[in-house]
């Protein structure tokens, strides 16, 4: 069947921009969203930097919201509303359609759990926190979006950590193809998490200063927060209502390392299988890829293994294909990362501009591909590949294609 | 014509028993798995009972290496998956690890571990070996890591519909052809902090005056009882199962899915939305209501949802028009794992040609199965209707 799935709306809330316009302008300008951490007293920290979003207020995006819902739900609802606005869909349009919402996350409503422990540590009565904790279960995130936007389609949270956004987008496309929804809001979110900070810090995976993917002296990630939501629908529906089409979701692939909870498989077998599946489903070959949005976390292991994954997937074309990691500017937005990176691919296709990998100073012979160092580049992008790899070996790759570009 | 997706094995770690035999014998005998909680101290709480999985030694099924860092959710799921693979007689040689997918439904797996990690970290000791296993995706990942599978490994959190969604996404992966075998199921664990919060919100049935705890069950408007455990099913394409001469236990047929956006905020549950989802599942299975032999209901004691579901069942099948079994009456509310337990109950009912349930409190409009009843069991309709608004139904039927 040729009625492909297309992207008609994007909502981005990132450390370097709220709304796709600001996010994209800053991302191609190489503007960082990293600052001194606020959620934990930085005098106690050896690694003091992260990507918190300081000026986010849910009131700017939605009225009459449930006051006790968590920040993850708020970020998701705001990004979903931005995506709907961007797609030109009004509440009365939504009433006539079956719209679902699939959102990926790593930590879910982590601040709610953290708040409980703060409350108890300060001698608070557990009863007084009970109502807040009711918003902790991770499925509350898409539920809050569905409740506030009055959606009647399938609502799921996919907690596959740092690849979750791509999982959500792939599964959302399936839901439309299988007739479970007319259109889907799909993406990922993570609020800033102290638990994630402590966890990654304990694993010595946090950078002491900046995130420098593919650089010889890279030292790790920076903990960040954000939300990215895309609106997906069938091409026929989009055309019928005169929607602006960013790109076609040409294919996706999901696989696992089946190896270790935190160390990537040394040969990247999960990433390779996910990429192969995506290429096959999208019916594109290595030479067709014009841009790769890397997972590019800035850890020694990921960037080295990802370089090999890309070389395996693209063969000789790997050396001719620009690759960049926006985590250099955003830090690691966890569940939101692959969704914001999918939005980046959609914008790259739309505008013919590829964002840079910033903070790049020293080449690493083990990461010797063209990683678009420090400055964006104007290049027509017909086909973009978005990689994401997570804890437990969860791997997902999306391929986006310029609409009308096959 | 899409190829049939069939079930070739099941495995459970449940409040009724570890392993299929213990679980089914106790289920068939109408026993309850709901007892006094032993894992944590409930003295200060108005409720102290739940469907708790009894302590067991996981070394009977899992190698000792690495067990120390694994929490209960991971252990439940790994043991259930192991049992299911064994039940399906899938041997090492038959399996290509890049074609075995794992899909689990859960909303709160590993929460106790996560909170413990944060407590320790806040006092200055963050254990790097503990952190990776605090994520909700850890049980599914640990199954694929332990067994060495590297196909799709996913976790879905769709409220009460989570494990029916996992089964559905698993079936879809098989239809697309990339996967040959799917381990599909669900897992949840009891956790003191979330249990306490639910107590304080008045969610649970409380006994009041002490003495024996007898929960009247769902559909009785008496509140709910928590539960935990894991259930896994092995799914394959029918042709794949036939080629290896597997024992085919049941077929995963059609589904209906949606969401009620008013349910949570307005504390309502629209009967029409539940009915629509059930009718969609039957339509997608080419079934008429009169062909349904049993409703395996996900009702768990949420008064508003139960009442609406009873009304939807009555509208679709007529008053006392179909036998109804709510697995929660014997397991407690197993939340994201409930759908998988319902699917296992359907498979067992079809295998035994017998319906078994525990319904101490009868509901006038519904034929709630109490005890065991031998009868023709061919088509089962599973429902998942949560107070958050999730709405899903799935048909599990005899494949022949």
Provide a compact summary of the structure:
The complex is a heterodimer of chains A (406) and B (400). Chain A is built from 13 helices and 15 strands. By secondary structure, chain A is α/β, with parallel strands linked by helices.
Textual characterization of the structure:
The complex is a heterodimer of chains A (406) and B (400). Chain A is an alpha/beta fold and 406 residues long. Chain A is 34% helix and 19% strand. Chain A is built from 13 helices and 15 strands. In chain A, strands 1, 2, 5, 6, 7, 8, 9, 10, 11, 14 and 15 form an eleven-stranded mixed β-sheet that branches. A two-stranded antiparallel sheet of chain A has the order 3-4. In chain A, strands 12-13 form a two-stranded antiparallel sheet. In chain A, helix 2 packs across helix 6 and helix 4 packs antiparallel against helix 5. The longest helix of chain A has 17 residues. Chain A is globular, with a radius of gyration of 20 Å. The two termini of chain A are 15 Å apart. In chain A, 65% of the residues are buried. The mean pLDDT of chain A is 96. By secondary structure, chain B is an alpha/beta fold. Helices cover 32% and strands 22% of the residues of chain B. In chain B, the strands form three sheets. In chain B, strands 1, 2, 5, 6, 7, 8, 9, 10, 11, 13, 15 and 16 form a twelve-stranded mixed β-sheet that branches. The mean pLDDT of chain B is 94. Chain B is globular, with a radius of gyration of 20 Å. In chain B, helix 2 packs across helix 4, helix 5 packs across helix 12 and helix 9 crosses helix 10. The longest helix of chain B is centred in the N-terminal third of the chain and has 16 residues.
